[in-house]
Amino acid sequence: METKNMITALAALAQESRLAIFRLLVQTGPEGLSAGKIGEALAIPPSSLSFHLKEMTHANLVTCRQQGRFVICSANFDTMNSLIAFLTENCCGGNPCISIPSPVCSTTGKTKS
């Protein structure tokens, strides 16, 4: 990903409600949650939730799809993994880092080692 895209994603996460929404969607996995359930879980009013989801969709951190009369939102794990890779690229100045196993999430809900 380009630096501009990384800045947009980080800026979208630099707000308390959006960070909470994204973390909830990551915990939920690829199946996602309805906008209503997100709002209920985090006590965010619908108008505010809509604004935050729009910001995160614009940053490509969240995808939303219509399912019947519900809007289902999911974390974009490809963007999340790209962001993590960007932040840790050339970690420790090219020297071997302390080995910390960190799973890479996939859109299938299974982790890769």
UniProtKB/TrEMBL annotation:
PANTHER family assigned to the protein according to its UniProt record, in alphabetical order: ARSENICAL RESISTANCE OPERON REPRESSOR ARSR-RELATED
What protein am I looking at?
Helix-turn-helix transcriptional regulator
Q: Where in the numbering of this chain does the HTH arsR-type domain appear?
A: 1-95
Record InterPro entries = ArsR-like_HTH, HTH_ArsR_DNA-bd_dom, Metal_resp_trans_reg, WH-like_DNA-bd_sf, WH_DNA-bd_sf
Species of provenance: Candidatus Methylospira mobilis
Task: Kindly indicate whether the keyword Cytoplasm belongs to this entry.
Answer: no
Checking NCBIfam families in the record gives: HTH_metalloreg
**Which domain of life does the protein's organism represent?**
Bacteria
- The region annotated as signal peptide is none
Keywords of this entry: DNA-binding, Transcription, Transcription regulation
GO molecular function annotation:
DNA binding; DNA-binding transcription factor activity
